[in-house]
From TrEMBL:
The keyword Metal-binding applies. Keywords: Metal-binding, Oxidoreductase, Zinc. It comes from Streptomyces flaveus. Belongs to the zinc-containing alcohol dehydrogenase family. One of its GO terms (molecular function) is alcohol dehydrogenase (NADP+) activity. Its cofactor is Zn(2+). It catalyses: a primary alcohol + NADP(+) = an aldehyde + NADPH + H(+). The keyword Metal-binding applies. This is alcohol dehydrogenase (NADP(+)). Its EC number is 1.1.1.2.
Length: 346
């Protein structure tokens, strides 16, 4: 076991503080990664505050991890010391269920192991990326292409794949009208990726405060959802809407913006239940769906796509001591557009 410095929440809703954690020895198929950068995802806040249910404490959040391989086990074939790598939202799965065998490990039905706030196969809690290093099985490590700087690549391991997966699945591309609902850490990646895929991109945001940014990042149109005229003007417009919002919405209103047989896909996860009139879906044969990150193979595809198109996250680089202030600012939508911790400051 190796002792490393980290930032952890000692209890639900408690401020994060500097501490130390134990990392397991490097096993036969393990990769030891010196973490260079760790993104702050809104999911980190939900879990540290037990907004999604009972959690494990102390908790070291962080599932947007970018770093350098510093040691490999004797059986490792995919990576070598010095490689640029990343780790996303999960670090293991059962490898035996139908979803795992189909290459959809993110939907493992029996033994998925989240990067933090989970229990590993050794029976010990998992700790995430707000730390100096991490040990991960090589099959759950991603290669970060040379064309991506590690700091702007880190958020791609959650925010990037969370948007890339539904955009690809619902065929965003030339001739398709796509709306990204919410212009935050997830939404700004949706704008970049949908634009690179060739879709006509519209941002639906509560206000026009970030309009200039949205247009610069690739949006063709930008509308304020606080204006009732938006819903009148855009009725029946979109083939696909991807909602990144983590607060309850009037889905009945947003479903009116879809074309016949259009889809509204949720990647944001509100803590509260929603209300839905099913006629909003039945009328027009519309789809209300969800999507959760992506598989290992699709995440690698996303990283390669982003490198090929020069896409990284828009970030604010912070020191580890600023993490609690960063959490407050995320909750106030005061970040453009992803906080990334320089882990050298832990």
């Amino acid at each position: 076991m190796t002792t490393v410095a980290a930032y952890a929440a000692p209890a639900a809703k408690a401020p994060l503080e500097r501490t130390t954690i134990e990392r397991r020895p490097v096993g036969e198929f393990d990769v030891l990664i010196d973490i260079k950068f760790a993104g702050i995802c809104h999911s980190d806040i939900h879990q540290a505050q037990e907004g999604w249910g009972e959690a494990i404490f102390p908790m070291v959040p962080g599932h947007e991890i970018a770093g350098i391989v510093s040691e490999v086990g004797p059986g490792v074939t995919k990576y070598k010391v010095g490689d640029r790598v990343g780790v996303g939202c999960f670090v293991d799965s059962c490898r035996e269920c139908g979803n795992c065998k189909a290459g959809q490990e993110q939907y493992c039905v029996t033994g998925g192991v989240p990067t933090y706030n989970g229990i590993g196969k050794d029976g010990e809690p998992t700790y995430g990326g707000y730390s100096q290093n991490i040990v991960v099985d090589e099959n759950y490590v991603l290669r970060i292409p040379d064309g991506l700087s590690l700091d702007v690549a880190a958020p791609l391991l959650c925010a990037g794949i969370t948007l890339y997966s539904p955009l690809k699945r619902w065929n965003a591309g030339p001739g398709k009208k796509v709306a990204i609902l919410g212009m935050g850490g997830l939404g700004h990646m949706g704008v970049k990726i949908a634009h690179a895929l060739g879709a006509e991109v519209t941002v639906l945001s509560q206000s026009l405060r970030k309009q200039e940014d949205g247009l610069k990042l690739g949006a063709d149109h930008y509308y304020a959802t606080s204006d009732p005229k938006t819903f009148q003007e855009l009725q029946g417009t979109f083939d696909l809407i991807v909602s990144t919002v983590s607060a309850p919405l009037d889905f009945n209103a947003y479903l009116t913006l879809l074309k016949t047989q259009g889809a509204l896909v949720n990647v944001g996860a509100p803590e509260e239940p929603i209300s839905l009139n099913l006629f909003s879906v039945i009328g027009g044969g519309k789809t209300l769906a969800g999507s959760m990150i992506g598989s290992i193979a699709e995440t690698q595809e996303m990283l390669d796509f982003c490198a090929a198109h020069g896409i990284g996250s828009e970030i604010e680089l912070i020191e580890a001591s600023e993490v609690n202030t960063a959490y407050e600012r995320v909750q106030s939508s005061d970040v453009r557009y992803r906080f990334v911790i320089d882990t050298a400051t832990i």
